[in-house]
Specification:
Elements: E1 4-7, H1 14-24, E2 31-34, H2 45-54, E3 58-60, H3 64-73, H4 81-89, H5 94-102, E4 108-109, E5 113-115, H6 131-136, H7 152-155, E6 161-164, E7 174-175, E8 178-180, E9 190-195, E10 200-205
Parallel strand pairs: 1-2, 2-3, 5-6, 6-8
Antiparallel strand pairs: 1-9, 4-5, 7-8, 9-10
Amino acid sequence: MGRTVVVGDIHGCYDELQDLLGRVGFAADDRLICVGDLVVKGEKSREVLDLFASDARLSSVLGNHDRAVLRGLRGEAGLKASQEKCVRELEGGRERYAAFLGSLPRFLDLGSHVVVHAGVRPGVPLASQDEDDLVELRTLGPDRASREGVAWYEVYDGPQTVLFGHWPAAPVRRGPRALGLDTGCVYGYRLTAYLLEEDRLVSVPARRAYSAPQGRAA
């Protein structure tokens, strides 16, 4: 068995993903897992999806932007402008990309660790977690997406260690049993991965800022 490399939100930053794979020396027996949000905001969402769909070593959980684009590809309305733009970019392969995004799990159980996009409710069994929490949760107040309040990862204490994204920060967000891997690559910061077996973080700089964070856009 090779190594398990868990990478933060990619958001269409295909070139930085290639830089990261080179930095970690990604090998034939390694596996890469993304915490979700493969697409939207960056310039190469199509290339990212094509790579993940064609390489069995690569997998991802479903992120909130992935879910929105999936809905757009299925003809649903109500998307943000950046999500609608991504849907248009994927128009030529609508059915293929919808099938791929629709296949993404809401979480990946790795035993000692679990990969989700946004968060988990403390005290709720993994199989009983609400999908909206898995893809949108930040704080434990009435608005799960709010940045104001008690962060879920500050309260969560196991049993597994949660690897998550969704809420960019530098340095990484940490809790007693949680590690956030979104370090804002699409906003011009860094793309970060966690090498599970080595308990080590590796990152590469963004080549440029592709988007500016606004309000609840992260």
